[in-house]
Every structure is written in structure tokens, then in C-alpha cells.
Amino acid sequence: MEKKSLWKRITGSREALLALILILLFIIVTGFNSSFLTPSSLQQLIKNNAVTMVMALGMLCVMLVGGIDISIMSTLALSGMAIGMLLKYDYISGTIVPFIIAIAIGIVCGFLVGLVISRADVPPIIATMGFMYIYRAMGYLISNGGEWASASALGSFSDFATTKFLGLNCVIWIVIVCYVFFYWFMKWTRTGRKIYAVGSNPEAADVSGINVKNIKLLVFTIMGLLSGLGGALQVGIYASAMPNMQKGGEMDVIAACVIGGVSMSGGRGTVIGALLGSLILATIVKALPLVGIGSLAQNTFKGVLILVVVVVNIILQRISDRNALKGREM
Amino acid sequence: MAGKSGRSINNVPENPVKKMIFSWEGILVLLLIAINIFCSIFSEFYNLSSLLRQMPVYLAEVFLMLGMAFILVMGEIDISVGSIVCLSATLACLVSNAGVPFPAVFLIALLVGTCCGIVNALILTNFQELPPMIVTLSTQIIFRGIAEIVLGSGGSVSVTNTDGFRAIAGKVGQVPYILFLVLILAVIFAVILGKSTFGRSVYAIGTNRLTAYYSGINVQRVRFIIYTVMGTLCGLCAMFLISNSYGANTTTGENFEMDAIAMAVFGGIMSTGGKGNIAGGVISAIIIVCLRVGLGQRNVNAQVILLIIGLLLICTVGLPNLIKNARQSLKKS
To answer: How many angstroms separate the Cα of B142 from the Cα of each of A271, B115, B146, B148?
Structure first.
């Protein structure tokens, strides 16, 4: 067993590289704005990006099986709008019940998407593109054509986003619980490993007795569940529910995953990668105004970022393939 | 039974009338008639002249379908088209306001679209391992982002000199120019896709890319041309959009990629590649245009129309597969 040098181990592991980039980013941003690296500022960063961070976990699962889901933000809008309207017209109150309803709606939405993709063999991009408009339209329809629920209409529901538990904001606790659960789920449960198996080679997975269709269905249902949770979080954090909330936000989630090293063709990617990817994206977006890039240019920058990351990935892949070939030639 | 000529049993001549009705195009024609009957019952204003009058707004998207058909037959997807439309419409409005004569504006719109298409094409052909979906997803954000930067905080621009745009929105009798243009382009594209060597190589790539490569087709060149032409068509679409709205904003061309894909897929062009033809796409495009005009006349919410198109998209792709799967499992048991 040959020992690897520390440098090789860092450049060899994607997560270590990402962590290094994140630390560098932190240092740069702190240079511009010294108040960035304080606990309260970091908490604010995570809280503002909680929705993206939570949903990146679902997108990780979807992309691991080689799929993509661009309907997520419509599911978020539908579930968030549903609880917003229910709270507004006093059908429900409190915090737990809206959360359960939002998650239930998310699960149903995700299950439908999964059914269409796994049972009717519709390519994920086409199916989710269709559902993106269907769910968004449904969210619009249940809002009576564009009504929105404001903070006063939501009552005590959004209190959870401002209360602290053991020194940390409740939203951050939810994010932490999700990440810990998924770290365990993807690494140490059979189902988690099956998702990886289906992603790296569907035929081999099928032959070795994994029900590929059910795994796909499960993955999109998980995505739906997290979108529902994201809907409740979104309504809570911003204390309002609108039918057009987070429109285009699916790009952020996909970008977070792609930066985190999740492969578009499936089978590659980790929970830590998704975490680091979404944190890097969040930090960059926060840093953009500091270096003089206005809010108007943010979208362009995000697009360029995704493109650069995927292209660099391909180039690295080609180099490593070439090196591997050299190694075999002797 | 394969004869001496090597032809398979599929080539045994059928009753041509029967074949035509049971083909997907035949079903679409029947559906078109049904939709028209439905619309004329649904809305008392729905007739040929009102259809022709309100058609141009929706016809601009049919240009996109023509390019999308090629991309889908190749087994790929381009979801940046809506943003290219937005960018070229924005720039066309701006140069028109700067006093550039109309023919030059027209060329600039086409050029901007073509350049965007070339950007997509360059990335996709140089890094062929990349899925087209993720590339066009990011260029989708980039192109619209550039339009947002150009438009500034106001987010919209309207043309001051509308003469040229009025001219291309003109009519021969009751029939708008754009309808002629759509039909002429459709015929040209149909001939290229169905009869030319280039078109057949597109089918070959869509059926099996590796085989196509080994049989001497320059796959990357074909892809380059198709993505570039898609960009040019976006520029054309942008010009006709401005001729309807006399302006552009940051949401111009939103959802157009879905409309174009829905039209093509509904017309029997498989998203997995290698199947379908332009004729089906054009008929389904006309169906969707009729549906939009009919529903629009009774002020049906735009979101509801999107919902219907979304459902249509999923059902046309999903139902045939479901039926096929059900048949297979029936055979097994």
C-alpha cells in the first residue's frame, strides 16, 4: 500500500478541494467585509439559503440516478401557497400542521413525477418541464389568481424562523437534521447504496436484483418531500406566500449540486459535496455585490459559474483518463 | 417474410387510406378538426377571420419548433431558446431605437440569435461529453442575464420607430405574412429533414450516434449546424414577436422552450431521437395555436393554458409507453 502525499490526498479528494475553495472564499470575503466571518452573519447566510441547501439534497438523489428535476420550485410554490391560503383563511393554525400539510403535498407531487418517469418512461427533463408548468399553474389557481398571503395572514406560523433553540435558529436546526439524516441515509442504508448502484449502472443494478423503477420513484418522491419542506421553510423565512416564489430557483439548486461535484450522468456525488457546493454558491452570491457586481448581473454570473464548473470537470476528467492510460502503457 | 430483394414484410403495401388515418399525422388531423369544433362551440367569436387575426402572436413560436424538431430527432434538447429570443428581441429594439434602418435591425436580430446558437454549438461540440441539457440550462440563464443587464433596472424597452415592424406584421388579404413564412420554412425544413443527406444523417445520429460516427457522418459538424440554425430561428421569432408587442422586456420568450418542445413532441417527434417528421410537428403546432386562440378569446387564464400544454406534453410522451408496457406484460402472462 503506497502512501499518498498530503497534497495528492487533498487534490485527489473532491470534498477536500471544495473545502479548500470555501475557506479561500471566506478569507477573501472577510478581506472585503470584516463582519462576514461572525457567527451571526454565518447563521444569516445559512438561513437565507436554507431552502436551496435542503433541496440540494433531493437534487443530489435525483442526479445520482442520472435524472434531473426542474419542477421543484413549482412544487415548492404549490405547497407553500397551499399552506399560505389555508393559514390566511384560518383553516389551520400553528406550526406543525402547516409543515405536515406542505410536506404531504410535496410527497404527492413528487410521487406523481416519479410515476410518470419510472412507469411511463418519460425522459426526466420532459416530464419535469411539464410538471413545472402544471404545478406552477395549480399554485396560481389555488391563490385565487395571484392573491398572496402576507405576514399578518400567516399568524404565528412564521415565528419558528425567528426563534432560537439551543443558541441556533430553528431553520438552521432543520438544515442540520436534514444533512445528518441524509449523510446516514446515503452512506449506511441499503436504499442509499441502491441509489448509487442504479446511478452508476442501471443494467447491472437491475440484474443484481434492484428494482430500478422503484428506486427512481423513491428518488423523485424524496425530491418532492424536500420541495414541500422547502415550501414551508420559504413561507416561514420570508413570512409571505406568493404563487411566483422562487421562480427560476431550480437553477441555484442544480448549480449547488454541480459545483459540489455531483455528476450529471449519475452515480457520482456525495452529501458533503452538496453541502459544500451550496455553501460555496451562497458565499459567492453574497460576495458579488462586495466586488462590484450588481444584482442585475447575478444571474449571468451564476450561469457562467455552472458552465465553467462543468467544463473544468470535463477537462479534469480527460486529463485523469489520459494519465490512467499512461499508467497502463508502462 | 423476407423476399429475394431483401425487403422485409413491413414493405407489403397496405391500404393507403387506412394507413393514413391510423398514422399519428392522421390522428392529429382528426384532432385538429375536433379542436376547431370545440373552440367554435366554446367561444362565439371563433371563426376563420378571427383566427387569422389573432394567430400571429402564437405563430412566432412555430419557427422554434422547426429547429427544435431537428434537435429532438438528434436525441438532444435545447432549453435556451426562450432566452435567445429575449436577448435578440432586446438588442433589436435597442438598435432600432438608435436609428438603425429596419433591414439592418432585422439582420442584427438574426445575427444575435445566430451568435447565441454558435455559443451553444461551440461548447457542445468541443465538450461532447457534456449533456446538452446542462449546457443549455446554463446558457439559458446567461442569455437572459445579459438581456437583464442590457435592459437595466427598468427591465423593458419599446420601439419608437414601428414602421418596419408594422410592415412585417402586414397581411395579404386576411392572411398574415408570418403564416406564409411559417409554411414556406416548414416545407423547406421538411424537405431537408426528410429527403436530404443531411436530414438522414440527423436521423442516423438520433438512432445510434456511435454507428453514425463509424459510418462516416461528421457528427459534430451536424450538431454545430443544427444548434446554429436554432439560434437563427430564435432571432426570426424575436423579430415577429416585436412586430406584435413593439417592445421587449426581461420576460420576453419565457416558456417558449416548453412550447416548442411540446409542439414537436405532440407532433410525434420522439424526445429519445430518431423518430418523427416536420409534418406532424406543424399540424400539432397549428392545433396548439388554435387552442390558444380559442381559449384566449374567452379570457381563460394564461396559467391554465400552460397547465393544459404541460399535461399534453406528459401525456403524449407517457401514454404510448404505458400502453406498450401494458401490452408487453400482457404477453408475458
So the answer is: 28, 13, 6, 10
